[in-house]
Amino acid sequence: MQFRYAFGPDSYKRMTTPELREAFLADQLFAKGGIEFLYWENDRTVAGSAVPLSEPISLGNYPALASDFFCQRRELGILNIGGPGIVTVDGASHAVGTKDCLYVGRGAREVAFASESAATPAKYFLMSYPAHTTYPTTLIRQSDANRLELGDSANANRRVICRYIHEKGALSCQLVMGYTQLEKGSVWNTMPPHTHARRSEVYLYFDLPPETAVFHLMGPGDETRHLVVQNEQAVLSPIWSIHSGCGTSAYSFIWAMGGENQRFDDMDGIPVRDIK
């Protein structure tokens, strides 16, 4: 389990490109046959991935959590961006297809990840936050996600937002999770951008074709920087930072948040004319 610590906007202003990438970019995810985890100090976020091949992979415990098992005091969101898979929670098996999401509540002792085929393995993106109570383990199919169409071709931002874990969907303590898919010919996400001081956020970019990238904008609205992000890499977005991006082609991204509330529309927008 890697560790990333919190940085404020003053420290951010003095960072070089390598320092920004070290602090805010997770670029070592989705190793075949293994589980990768990153512990981020903001909101005590744990983000990671699991890519099982011919054998299932069990979710182990980590000394850094100081717990008897991973979900003893945590909830877990699992969104599959690979081939069909099966996630077993305390003996109950859940068929998690491509772009299906599974919420695992606090108290689940045994979690195991499997792929239906090692040739086209499941790729599970994992998000976990501390939880104060237990909500039931819930499977949300892509077809059952709360779907919202936004944007237009003139602004190159036609996109579909699919919400899985949220206040009107699968219930959780603080985790909010879903994904956004841009239509072909659209490249901008979350523009005009916003911040939300009540929640930190993680973006995982995926479905990027080879030789393409997303230029992810971050920082206070009046002093932005960018990170060049490749396929299946994630950006850690603190409460003081915007999170917006423009790709060299269409792409998708998972967004996951944790913090003080679960209101999807709780955000502080920044007009384009004020971005610097």
* CATH fold-level topology: Jelly Rolls
Number of helices: 2
> What integer is the average pLDDT?
96
Number of folding domains? 1
Q: Give the strand order, joined by hyphens, for the main sheet.
A: 1-3-4-11-6-9-12
User: What is the CATH class name?
Assistant: Mainly Beta
What would you report as the Rg, rounded to the nearest angstrom? 18 Å
Q: State the end-to-end distance.
A: 35 Å
Largest sheet: 7 strands, mixed
Low-confidence stretches: none
Q: Could you characterize the architecture of this molecule?
A:
The protein is mainly β and 276 residues long. It has one domain: Sandwich (Jelly Rolls), CATH 2.60.120.10. 5% of the residues lie in helices and 43% in strands. The protein contains 2 helices and 24 strands. It has a 7-stranded mixed sheet, with helices on one face. A 7-stranded antiparallel sheet has the order 2-21-18-23-15-14-13. The chain has a 4-stranded antiparallel sheet with strand order 5-10-7-8, with no helix packed on it. Strand 19 and strand 20 form a beta hairpin.
